Amino acid sequence: MVPFLRKIRKSLLAKSSLGRYALYAIGEILLVVVGILLALQINNWNEDRQRREIEMKTLRDLKVEFTENLNDALRVYEGNMGVYRATARLQQNAIAGRYAMQETDSLIFYMFDWFDYTPKPGASNNLINAGNLNLIRNEELRYLLTLWSGVEAELDDDEQLSISYSQNTIVPFLAAHYPISNLENYDFTLTHYDLKRTLHGMEALPERQAYDPETLLGDPVFMSHVSTKKMHAVHNAMECQRVVESCEEILELIENELLEQTKP
What we know:
Blueprint lengths: L1 H13 L3 H79 L4 H12 L10 H7 L9 H39 L11 H4 L3 H4 L13 H5 L2 H42 L3
């Protein structure tokens, strides 16, 4: 193509056809410009394709991350609601004068227990820390991802307060006023993690120790601990519900983006 153009240019110069040569020169310039623009367009297409491939992988990673976060948030929400129901039942039993030892033990287990949400940081942290959030084209999804750390932090603040109170106040009180060994009958950790096969009979439970449920449920200090534990459970459940809703919103947007980008 280039030798052919050179021949035309020489022919025009030889014939001293200035007007035709000017037209030829303009045509040649336009041809070069078109070539450059075409090359730039192809380069842009390639870069855009690469960005979309990276975005798709990131979206898939985000889907895994927030699916795990949602499952753990649901676990913690249900756990806190269990604590709420158990502490409410203890209050009702104290008011109604119901002092059955076995039921009291099963409810006190929730006083002893606590739940801690454990986020699975991954693609979201990498995006934000590396300043690559603009890889995500969906504006609403980008906005929710920027808010995510704050949603988690609010739940964590409430949880740490509740856990500290349980560890530093409730457990010492129970140790001094109640046979904590009775709670082993309600700890299903061994069953849940299938550890009984590896402990070779070490899972044998101690005998239930006698105590006076009426005295315990009539103790105003203990009932104050019950009320505090109940309020902590409500606050944690509310914050956990926000985490659940955020995860569900994010996952819905991710799913929509993945479906949209796989359309022909």
